Amino acid sequence: MNIQKQVEQVLRELVLAGNIQTGQLLVVGASTSEVLGHHIGTSGTEAAAEPIYAAVETVRAEVGFYPVFQCCEHLNRALVLEHAAMLAYRLEPVSAIPVPRAGGSMASFAFKHLQQACLVEAVQAHAGIDIGGTLIGMHMKPVAIPLRPSIRIIGHASVQMAYTRPKLIGGARAVYVIEENKVDSGFCE
């Protein structure tokens, strides 16, 4: 199976498990160096980014989420996304243009190919995929739920995924699921 098909498959698994909806943010971290079998940040190429981007676009067309592509540490892991997503989430743009040696090949490719790309410093994504150990956790909403993909290696890179859920708040009296025909007649103190 080729890289594009593998990424499509695991993204569909993530969308299903996380119940990802139209307009939600899905962060993509990808080390094209790791995909190619090299140490992260050493040998990435936009050619290796292309099938990953194509897979994200295929699944995005089916679901309607906003893809958010994480840059490398040389741009402080800033994120490339569509201008519409920036506006929808009231994010502030930052000034930089990702290139392969400062931002990473994946972010550089996305910046060139998204319809109206911009860069932001941080997001709180609803789900994410990390191909090659790029550490996307800083851009996930609390509470992140790890998801084991059916394909654990893409190219030569390990794959990690997570989706998020709302925080469970309250104590012993808290109810998280409404049971039919049962109504608590108690009162709050």
Question: Compute the gyration radius: what is it?
Answer: 18 Å
Q: How would you state the average pLDDT, rounded?
A: 94
What is the structural class? alpha+beta
For the biggest sheet, the summary is: 8 strands, mixed
From the spread of the alpha carbons, the general shape counts as globular
From the N-terminal CA to the C-terminal CA, the straight-line distance is 59 Å
Question: How would you spell out the order of helices and strands?
Answer: HEHHEEHHEEEEE
Q: How much strand?
A: 15-25%
User: What is the count of structural domains?
Assistant: 1
The CATH first-level class comes to Alpha Beta
* Share in helix: 25-40%
* CATH second-level architecture: 3-Layer(aba) Sandwich
Enumerate how many helices there are, as a single number.
5
Model regions low in confidence, pLDDT < 50 over at least 5 residues: none
Instruction: From the 3D structure, determine the CATH topology.
Output: Rossmann fold
- CATH homolog superfamily: Hypothetical protein TT1679
Number of strands: 8
